[in-house]
Write a structure and sequence with these properties.
Blueprint: E1 2-7, H1 28-48, E2 53-58, E3 76-78, E4 97-103, E5 121-126, E6 129-131, H2 133-143, E7 148-154, H3 155-164, E8 169-178, E9 181-184, H4 187-204, E10 218-223, H5 226-232, E11 238-240, E12 246-250, H6 254-268
Parallel strand pairs: 1-2, 1-4, 2-3, 4-7, 7-8
Antiparallel strand pairs: 5-6, 5-10, 8-9, 10-12, 11-12
Keywords: Aminopeptidase, Hydrolase, Metal-binding, Protease, Zinc
GO molecular function, one term: aminopeptidase activity
Protein name: D-aminopeptidase
Amino acid sequence: MKLYMSVDMEGISGLPDDTFVDSSKPNYERGRKIMTDEANHVIDEAFKNGCREVIVNDSHSKMNNLLIERLHPEARLISGDVKPFSMVQGLDDTYDGAVFVGYHARASMRGVMSHSMIFGVRHFYINDQAVGELGFNAYVAGYYGVPVIMAAGDSEAAAEAEELIPNVTTAAVKETVSRSAVKCLTPEKAGRLLRERMAYAIQNRGQVKPLTPPDRPVLRIEFANYGQAEWASLMPGAEIEPQTTTVRYQAKDILEAYQAMLVMTELAMRTTFS
């Protein structure tokens, strides 16, 4: 079994706020160590349960957070930015399953540090389906016929995964109290939970179907203000829906929709004030 693993940071246990996930803030180095340790629990359990190869994609911010010198020696790491497919870089049809670790809830929803790529996004839609990072990434996996067999993160991310992906295994390593406060498992207990759930996810993988994306999907991004929508609409083929802050893009497939999302959110971040 070949496993793909995308690791974000906001859903790691013990990390309640941006001081742990922003490289300029005081708790970031602590956050990196805890993040790497959580990834290792999942990687090690995957190898113990029959995986022959585990590829890990660092999926947070500049995507260079995981400490390779502390990472499981048999894993391979995709690290750094810019990546053409960001949080799902390297994912293709050679994988038997995907695992998302450290994930958080989508923008505008309850959940610790909830957001969708940037803080200027209110909602992503694929046709009429509201998705966040978790859902969008699962659609890309589904394009390749790869099921997301486990999603780990805060309690709200786990609930989001269960709503989108029937029979997915989830591991909630912390319970949301507010957007910047959580009730956490200790790293030791979180590690035990992740190992238990990873072992179960591998056993249960036959019960999980890929999240198949629609053909020729329409991507719609609702931004927080009109300036962000103006910047995003500069991408060829994108247009602002009248009297809204929503930008619409007709994609040929989910891969094009994903890259369009990356371009539009990068453009939107050029807005100088809100």
